[in-house]
Every structure is written in C-alpha cells, then in structure tokens.
Amino acid sequence: MLGVSWACALILPPVMEDLGEALAAFGLTVSTTPDKGRCLLATRDFSPGEVIISQEPYVSVPNNSSTLRCDRCFMSSNLKKCSACQIPWYCGSTCQKLEWKEHKLECQALVGAGKERRNHLTPTIRLMIRLYLKRKLQKEQIIPTTAMDNYSLVEELVDHMSEIEEKQLVLYAQMANLVNMILKLPDVSIKDNAQNFSKLACNAHTICDSELRPIGTGLYPVVSIINHSCAPNSVLMFEGRLAVVRAVDHISKGTEVFISYIETAGSTATRQKTLKEQYLFTCTCPCCMKVGLQDDVQESAILEGYQCLNGSCNGFLIRNTDDKGFICQKCGCIRNKVEIQEIAIELKSLEDMASRTLASGNYQDACSIYKAIEPLQLKLCHSYSIDLMRTRENLLKILMELQDWNGALTYCRLILPLYQRVYPSIHPLLGLQYYTCGKLEWLLGETKSALKSLTKAVDILRITHGTNTTFMKDLLFRLEEARAEAAYRKTSIDAIGSV
Question: Where in the numbering of this chain does the SET domain appear (predicted)?
C-alpha cells in the first residue's frame, strides 16, 4: 500500500533508507516493481508459523461497540473512562500513563470542542486527530521517533485521490473540516486532511481479536508495504493491537511477502470488485489471472450460481445462449430463469427480515427466519454456495447465543466442508471452525471427536496465531485435557475387557 514511481526506485527517501536498515534485522527488504510500487521481499527463508514482521500501530482506536475496550491494550475488563473528555477508557493506571502524553493533547482538544462535536466523533475522525497530535509530539521531540514509527512513513503512503469519486471527496472534506475545528492546528489544511482520510481508507487495518472479531482500527505504515494476493503466503493477525505477520507457506529468500486485504471466499469477479471499490486497484495475482478461464467459470458458478434441478446431479449451471435459463454442464438439465427469479425474490425478502431481526437482538425469531432461508437456498443454490455458507454461519452464531449446543454443533459440522473448499488448508477461519467444533464436542461429551477437532485446530492455529497468546495457551490446555480424558477412557475400557 506504499507507492512510488518506477523511475524513483533507485533514489530512496532518507526515511526509506532508515527503514531498510531496520527491516534487515527481520530478514526483509523494501523493493519496487513497476506494476505495484513498493513491496516487501524476504532476504532469508521463512518457515510456516515463523514471524516475518511485527509492528505497533502508529495510531489506533477501539471500535464503537457495545463491548468497551481500553484505548491502550484493547482489553475489556476493569475499565474507567477519562474523567475530563469522557471519550477513552482505560483498564488501569499503567495503560493510562503510557497513553498520557498522546491523550493529554487529545483530551484538551476534545474538551475545548464541546459536547456537540464530541457526539460526532467517529473512530475514523478520532484516528485522524491522533495522527496529527502524534506528528506534533514527535516533531517537538516529546515522544521519540524510530525507523518504523514516524510520520514520514505515513507521508509515503498512497492516497489514490485522483481515482476517488466526487461524492467521497466531499465526505472527506466534511470530515476534515470537523478535525480542523477540533484541533485548530495552523499547519493542517483541509486539503491535506482529506488526503490523509483517503490514505486511512486505503491503508488502515481492522484490528481483530484472536477469533477474528473486529475490535478496532490501526494504521501500520510498515505492514502497509506488504502487497495483496488472493493466495497469500503469510497472514496478518493481532495480539492486542500489535500487528503480527506470520508465514503460512515456506517463503524462500528473494520471494515477495503477501497478505490478503479481503475475505477471499468468493468468485474471482467478487474479489476483484471488492478490491477495486475498497483499495482502488485491480489484482493480478495468480488466482485472478485465471478469470474467464474454464476452471474459474466453473468455480464461480459453484460458489455464486444455481443448483441443478436434477436431484442426483451436483453439476454447475451456466446461462443459456437464449438468456431464458441456465443449463447444467454435467447433465444438460435446463433451469428456467423465471423460476430462479421467483425464489430469489422470496429469499431477498426473508434475508432482509432476518438481518433486521438479528440486529434487534431477537435471536429466537432470527433463528426461525434463517432456518426458513436455508431450504430455499438449498433449492436455489449449489451445495457449496457462499450464500448458504453465510446463512449457516449466522445460524451457528445464533444457536451459540441461545446455548443450543447440539444445534450449534450440527451447523458447525455443516460449515466445515464449505470452509475446506473456499479456504487453503492453513487459514485462521478454518482453524477456528475446528476449534469451535472441538469445544462443542467436548461440552457434549464427545471426547474422541473433540480430540480430533482440537488437534486439527492446533495444527492450523499454531501456524497462524503462534503459541504464546492467551488464546492459544487455552486451546493447547483444552487439547491436553481431551487427550487425558481419551487416554483415561481407553484405559478404563481395556481394564474392563481384561476382566
């Protein structure tokens, strides 16, 4: 996400020279390609599970959600609000003191802005306020700068301003105006501010917990050098607000490091559309270069297309040449376009109702509606449909909330084959699904199954998550419990058999 012209590739700004020295300690270097700009290359081999690079955010903020979080560590326990501005929460004096130099100026600005403007304070606007205040503090040498933590790296980020629609530019200008009214900094123009909002949109990362639930937003200028691939060789995870990039494949010396910027489950066309809308570029990774080829057409029809009417056939459907229906590429059965549209209209109505009901917290009714959606999707969509997968994910979450453990386990197992198809064998979502399965199986007394599921979870998550976090220590403890229980049961059965 850092950009530079090819002509300037050999004339690195001083900030990049300093960064290069710091990255050398990680076994990395910054390089430049004519089509993608800057990228991160490995200068040594990396094994699966090995940390490639880690970085604290230049600035970060927790999400606005029902779960309050500490501004420093993002923990959610023992929180107390700042008594002056009433905006940030802290889990204790340690985090509050560590944040004080930066929050002191923010606090003064927010108090001076008045209650009405504070009410319009979104996480994105607060992130921008913190960006300028940290720049000011580093410029005045109140807080230190390092090769990997300085505003010059933010200046190097691409903003894609020339490609942004006028409507979005107007929104950025309005947000910039609010930031200026709060900060009252003479050296910050609305134009520069709007440009930085565009940089945040293209470069900021959603901070997630160990189970990939969004908890905040952070700007990581060095991590932003890493380019996107729909088949990445590394994964970005977070430990608190620390960004950690780990290899998921063997990465040889001289190879570019890639992460995925988006959810990769979906057709090539869907991924391309998402990347273009959100990040303003067209992906040319090996997966996307297959667009339009037979294998890609087939996979798109399976993931986002329709089910064959022949119940014994699991073929995929392609639009007929007369545009009146879809023809199965396996058995030749034709499905009428009007029939498909009728089911799709009914589904859209139910999905809108389910979404509203779930948002209101009415889990019981939402469960009933999603269970009405599922058979319609099975009738309309391929059995590996992404839409069907999302419905089952919602049902799993709802049933967990309702503490219907048997029902939750049923859907957890139904989702697994879909995940195995759309994700690579080492992917955090697949590992977490095995983990959920294992927890439910353990809870329901299915020790043997729990042992298998938890073992598969550990095999994946020790690579994507490492082994030192609280989450992974808990998972490893559960696995040892399951092993001990399974061994005890086997010993008991063997003892009975020998009598």
Answer: 26-262
Mean pLDDT, the chain, whole residue set: 92
User: Which of 376-380, 467-471, 495-499 shows the lowest per-residue confidence on average (mean pLDDT)?
Assistant: 495-499
Q: CA-to-CA distance for 82 and 74, rounded, in angstroms?
A: 15
Question: Residue 95 belongs to what H/E stretch?
Answer: helix 93-113
- What does the pLDDT look like over 362-380, one tens digit per residue? 999 999 999 999 999 999 9
- Cα 155–157–160 angle (5° rounding)? 115
Residue 362 exposure: Cα atoms within 13 Å on the Cβ side: 11
How many angstroms separate the first and last alpha carbons of the chain? 69
CB 71 within 8 A of CB 62: yes
CB contact burial 276-289 (16+ within 10 A = b; e otherwise) = eeebbbebebebbe
Count CB-CB contacts under 10 A for residue 86. Answer: 13
Q: 472 — phi, psi (to 5°)? A: -70, -35
35-72 in b/e form (b: 16+ CB < 10 A) is eebbbbbbeeebebbbebbbbebbbbbbbeeeeebbbb
Q: What is the pTM of this model?
A: 0.92
Domains of the chain in start order, with CATH, are: 292-422 (1.25.40.10), 426-499 (1.25.40.10)
3-state helix, strand, coil in the chain (%, to 5): 55, 15, 35
